[in-house]
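Batch queue: ligand-bound targets. Current item pairs a single chain with flavin-adenine dinucleotide. No template structures supplied; prediction is de novo from sequence plus SMILES. Inputs echoed for audit trail.
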Amino acid sequence: MAASRTIFIAGAGIGGLTAALSLANKGFRVVVLEKAERLEEVGAGLQLSPNASRILIDLGLKDRLGRRAVTPEAISIMSVRAGGELLRVPLGKAACERAGAPYWVIHRADLQSALADAVTDHPDIELKLGCQFEDLAAHAKGLTVVHRTGNDRRQDVGLALIGADGVWSAVRNHLFPDAQPQFSGLIAWRGTLDANQLPREYTAPRVQLWMGPKAHLVAYPISAGRQINLVAVLPGKWNRPGWSTGGDERELRSAFEASGWTGPVRMLIAAVDGWRKWALFTMPEGCAWHQGAVALLGDAVHGMLPFAAQGAGMAIEDAAVLAKTLSEGPSETSAQVAAAFKHYGRLRRARVARVQRLAAKQGRIYHLAGPIALARDLTIKAMGPERMLARQNWIYDWRLT
Ligand SMILES: Cc1cc2nc3c(=O)[nH]c(=O)nc-3n(C[C@H](O)[C@H](O)[C@H](O)COP(=O)(O)OP(=O)(O)OC[C@H]3O[C@@H](n4cnc5c(N)ncnc54)[C@H](O)[C@@H]3O)c2cc1C
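Prediction returned. Tokens below.
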């Protein structure tokens, strides 16, 4: 295939791999540069609502993902103040039938490896591991992309570059050095447990969301139900980049013991051996989505708080929209690609900003304390499961049009 149809993608995360498959299916040749030497089992669980699972199914990943994902039957909203379940929001079959696609929870590594297997099987995609994007230059024929594997620094010419290289994006830094991720003042702690270590009530296919003063805990099964994924979010000052630093579990335990958390939460926290932590960074709303024939997607442009469970979902949507936009019009020259990328940014900007704002708002609600937490709990109870689920329709019902 001609070099003029070659698109480079920096980053083989969830967004970059989805973009590679989406673009290759539209007839482009794709080269994915990934700085990690191996796609390792770093990270924890991700939630994939129907807006995202629908895209992955359309890419032919239903069987690959279905073997590893869990379809939770409900989200249980629990309040520490109330001492138990406030509301059970049905997901499972009901949500699947209504939205036409499943709600899945899955280990990030399982999702990444299913995408990477499909990418490796695709004749028009080359995945270069241990290969870091370093620099780029735009010229009349397209772009020169500079990348490094060990001491071997090379340059290649392509039609376009997509920065899918996460919240600390080197591509974004090159284009817009003033747009920097900001520390939210929150730290996520992640741990996993073998499901057979726990009583059955904690291993049901359900997402449990525990809200308490200035903190919350989410628990759900992953790895076809063999493991339970726990993520606790607390305020803190530690703010180093990265996704998997060892955390001192005494710090976490004492935070959850101090402020009256109920027995089940403390039991879950104590059962984990080897907590990892990452500081939550976000991109300010309104970052530019492209410059010329270079576009950004996923966390590189809109890294968000995890409280809407849409970080991966928005990256997957970006990838599908970008591929569709690029394939719809002529894309032979840099000017045509730039016009397609401008349109892509226009299509994504408002929806993603709304999700970013929702995520920030939900974080504040989850962490309420005192009398206002009582008002929150009463409101959630009064709302009931159907209304609670209907509030998500604008996210889950999204379709590639
Ligand atoms: C290792 C890891 C673990 C994570 N764990 C979780 C988790 O447990 N829970 C959660 O909610 N979110 C997690 N995330 C974030 C989550 O995957 C993203 O929020 C979401 O999926 C959007 O993904 P993305 O593709 O935009 O970026 P990411 O998933 O962050 O992927 C970016 C990719 O770009 C690569 N990269 C970075 N710089 C360069 C460069 N210069 N050249 C080439 N490649 C580069 C990175 O190695 C990475 O593979 C994790 C991200 C990473 C990288």
